Amino acid sequence: MLAEFLAGDAQSGKVVPPTGFTARLTLFSAFAMAFLTVFALALSLATGRLADRWGAELARTSTVRISAPAGEMAAQTEAVLKVLETTKGVASARALTDEEQRALLEPWFGPDLPVETLPIPRLIEVIETEKGYDADGLRLRLAAEAPGAVLDDHTRWRRPLVRAASRLRLLGWASILLIAATTAAMITLAANAALAANAQVIGVLRLVGARDAYIARAFERRFTLRTLAGAALGTVLGALAIVALPQAQPEGGFLTGLGFRGWHWLWPLIIPPLAALVAFAATRAAARRTLRNMP
Amino acid sequence: MIELENVAYNYGGGELLSDISLRLQPGSFHFLTGPSGAGKTTLLKLCYGALVPTAGQVRLFERDVREMERDDIALMRRRIGVVHQDCQFLDHLSVSDNIALPLMVAGRDLLAESANLKELTNWVGLTERAHALPPELSGGERQRAALARAVIMSPDVLLADEPTGNIDWEMSQRLMRLLIELNRMGKTIMIATHDIALIRAAKSHVQARVLRISNRRVQLAGADL
């Protein structure tokens, strides 16, 4: 049915004269909206990846930081590890080696930091089970066994970040919906203008026995195909602009870069047919309403 | 075929037509005359469902227009050919395409109908002008093209509103000959015109009833017509 529609009825297509103004308006609107949709889509997908990454990577890890005088460090580390071993919900726990701590500090203090001689806290990496542990209970036990130990379950800073990323993703999708609604409104305006400009044509068509569905179809097909063409162009240029964006470097930290990854590149392909569908629905509604109200 | 029973039509706050009863029998030929503004065009519009009467009943092929949906009216138009004084063409289409317009909107295969289209174009003497655009035609050519368009679906009835209004006498006679020929093929014809000379000339070739609109009513014209 879609193929039939796109192949079209050449006869019905030519009964409506080509109108420059509405043609240009439709093409430009579809082009601009598709271009913007590519960016909104890229933003949504990128923030989605970000939220998923932060959620997945940080959700099951936490850190115990031990600050104690040099003489007590080993004993407190031992005590903390024992507490963690017997804590329900902790899958594994291990103290970071001096080399690992040095690697963590290297970006700030350089490669030759004498970790052994400095009063640097000892870090213990804790991996949780799927169910997780009771953070408040663990804190109480650590306070009793190793007063210098502080549990950081990352929740404090992870939650707002994940929430912000999720909100950004939502905003991206809301933008796409707004763009679709704006496209529909503009196509409706253009279709109404075309219908008004062609009132005499519609009168002649009715005089010779055309049904309203036939007349509406002539307009629907024209606006749908114009929108498809404009949206295809906007999508291609939008995708090229995304390709041309600077790549996110690994040193860039948690930013993943605004763009598409892997199969996500297929997402923009649905923009032109979706825009055409919006145009078809908008034109159909406008044409049916106008024709119903015409004497 | 087309029946009007006690029909009235109000326009601009007043009654334009009142208590009109009329029956177009198959194969009949009618002239509708009267002064400008008497309601000839309105009566024709009532006869092809473009207007709905304020009172009374209009039946097209046994169906009351009030009970017809817009699509039913559209389908009915394929059985009633209409020729307007201003012809009403699609100016961006060629004469040939304009003549074929009723076939297009009816979803007919134009290739299959091409012989019929050529024959009809030739019958109205527009073969040479088939690819011209309507604005390039003379008044007479436009009327003949409009007539060809009106009959291409082989309608049962042909209604013509002042078809000779914008053309010279010779061309009027040529158009009338075509209309009389159609009537001889069995088509029902009604022509609205204020041209008394045209009616008198036509009556020597065809048996026609002449109706006159006077004081909002239709009456049979006198012996002078």
List the helices and strands and how they pair.
The complex is a heterodimer of chains A (295) and B (225).
Chain A: H1 2-7, H2 10-14, H3 20-59, E1 61-66, H4 70-85, E2 90-95, H5 98-109, E3 122-128, H6 135-145, E4 149-152, H7 155-197, H8 199-207, H9 212-243, H10 271-293
Antiparallel strand pairs in A: 1-3, 1-4, 2-3
Helix pairs in contact in A: 3-7, 3-9, 4-6, 7-10, 9-10
Chain B: E1 2-11, E2 14-24, E3 29-33, H1 40-47, E4 55-60, E5 63-64, H2 70-77, E6 80-83, H3 95-105, H4 114-123, H5 139-151, E7 157-161, H6 169-184, E8 188-192, H7 196-203, E9 209-214, E10 217-220
Number of domains of chain A: 2
* CATH H-tier superfamily of chain B: P-loop containing nucleotide triphosphate hydrolases
CATH architecture of chain B: 3-Layer(aba) Sandwich
Q: Overall 3D geometry of chain A?
A: rod-shaped
Q: Structural class of the helix and strand makeup of chain A?
A: alpha+beta
Terminal CA distance of chain B reads: 25 Å
Write up what this structure looks like.
The complex is a heterodimer of chains A (295) and B (225). Chain A has 295 residues and is α+β, with helices and mostly antiparallel strands. Chain A has helices at 2-7, 10-14, 20-59, 70-85, 98-109, 135-145, 155-197, 199-207, 212-243, 271-293, and strands at 61-66, 90-95, 122-128, 149-152. Chain A folds into two domains: 2-55 and 159-293, no CATH class; 68-147, no CATH class. A four-stranded antiparallel sheet of chain A has the order 2-3-1-4. In chain A, helix 9 (212-243) runs antiparallel to helix 10 (271-293). Chain A is rod-shaped and about 100 Å long. The model of chain A has no long low-confidence stretch (mean pLDDT 86). Chain B is α/β, with parallel strands linked by helices and 225 residues long. Chain B is globular, with a radius of gyration of 17 Å. The two termini of chain B are 25 Å apart. The mean pLDDT of chain B is 91.
